[in-house]
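re: that complex we talked abt at group meeting.

here r the seqs, copy pasted straight from the sheet so there may be weird spacing, ignore it
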Amino acid sequence: MTDSELHPYVELIAREARRPVFTDRMGRDRVMAAIHAEPVPRRHVRLWERVLEPRSFRLSPAGSALIAAGLVGIGVIAGVTSTNRDVRSPDGQLPVADVRSHLPVSDTVVNFVFIAPQATNVSIVGDFNGWDATKTPLVRAANSGRWTVTLPLTAGRHLYSYVVDGAWNADPNAPIAPDDGFGHSSSVKIVSRGSAL
Amino acid sequence: MSDDAADVQRVLAGDVDAYAALVDRYYDRCARFAVRMLGNRDDAEDALQATFLRAYRALHRYQERDRFSAWLYRILVNQCRSIAARRSHRERVFVREEALLLNAPDRTPNWTGEEEEFVQRVLAELDPLLREAFLLKHIEEMSYEEMSALTGVGVSALKMRVKRACDRLRERWERIKND
Amino acid sequence: MLAGALGLAVLLGARPTAAQDPDPFSRFDQGTRYTIELLIDSATAAGLPSQRLRSTALLGLSRKADGKQIVAVVQKQLSLLRVAKSALGTSDPEELSSAAAVLEAGGKPGQLNPFRIKQKGRNDLQAFAVWADLIERGVPSDDASMAITKLWQDGADDDTFQSLFRNVKSDILQGLNPGTALQNRIREGPGRVSPSTVKPPEGQQENQSSR
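got the structure back, here u go
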């Protein structure tokens, strides 16, 4: 609607409304005072947020064997990603430092098991992997209906579900959370703080 | 790079005072929208403070390909909506001075408090969604595409809102001119 | 911390999964994204766990919900977290998330008061998880509240709450009324793993984790 089409009265209102509103410096000064009290916004805030998020990764067979031998509860550091170049030294080598001195309060690895003899694919989704069904598949033990995966999780409350051939299934052996608002009730895993290495 | 984008980069690089340049550039314009939208200074002040603070916090998410004013206005529009939602209805007041204004064609509008109040009262009669669309279209003079990106409302719905706002204003005129 | 972590990863031969999608929120339409970012911003400003809201939004994406629904759910989450914080007076994100779930299931804010006092070496996450679960399974909200609170005040540990959960769940699955199941287990002492007093109906499967 161009101005020429506006009814004269409407044009009047618009013209009046377009006139500047008087402002003094006080409002602006208050804004800047509040700004100075804020943390400085950083360009890569999101990168750091991501790095500190719990990551899921699978342990090698040797690692899994350690876990299976009953050493669950060994502290494992969360938030590991090998794609973060920043931690490489200038010559590109991965540092192998004294682990103990760098450990935060350590958490735990959790073994997830789901019995589904007739399933073709089972994966786990949860707040530790952005609920992405492609991220964390379970592995079927040979000649059985037993699907497992072991994940390091930070201390606290975690929500998760199994995706069995595309269908979301709660863990029948875990407490359930209220309906998530999207038609499904997830399972709850509480991870307490484990012991440090 | 536009001035806006350059200032944003400076702030992100650590020059907090560069934000003052952005504030100076947009404060008055945002104030005008906030006052017209909310109808009173106090609420408008709250909206402005919240807007510039949130914009600062979200600065790392601003992308150069967006117009900074549109990006900022998105925050402003939403702040105004939250504040308006918290308030109760304003009383509708009928003003006769409008007829006088319309009948003085050569009058160059001078800035007085009474005129602002008259405009505010008229705008206050509009449903907030209609008012918002009318302000964005005819006071901020945005395109419908910009308005759509900003408000999240579809272009045709926005056109309908602007049309309805103009209809209401016209109806108002029909009522008062016959008094 | 990262240096040490990578060292450990090297020792265990871990193979991290593919790097996370750098910007999962880009899958939202603009309006939805913007509103959700604002809600997350509000959470941060109020000292509430924004990470929980992020996760909820991603869950909505994964469940293929539309933008409006996702926004509504995130908004509701934010309110619950606010109430939880007001009731508990804590800023611990895990505790707030757990308490919010209790409220969502049907617990009342006042029922969280006994958990305001922090005890060294204890946390109420497991208690809250079981509390919400009991209500979800049909135990009357007030009954669940009373049972959990009493256990907590008596010093029950995580294992006790987990046993209670397992036993009550088992009883309910065998056909017992949920409220009754809870009362039975509380009365006999929830930490004891005793056979249910209800005989399972003929032919019913006991192994509930298979499919």
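couple things i noticed - Residues 25-36 of chain A form the longest helix (12 residues). DSSP finds five helices and eight strands in chain A.
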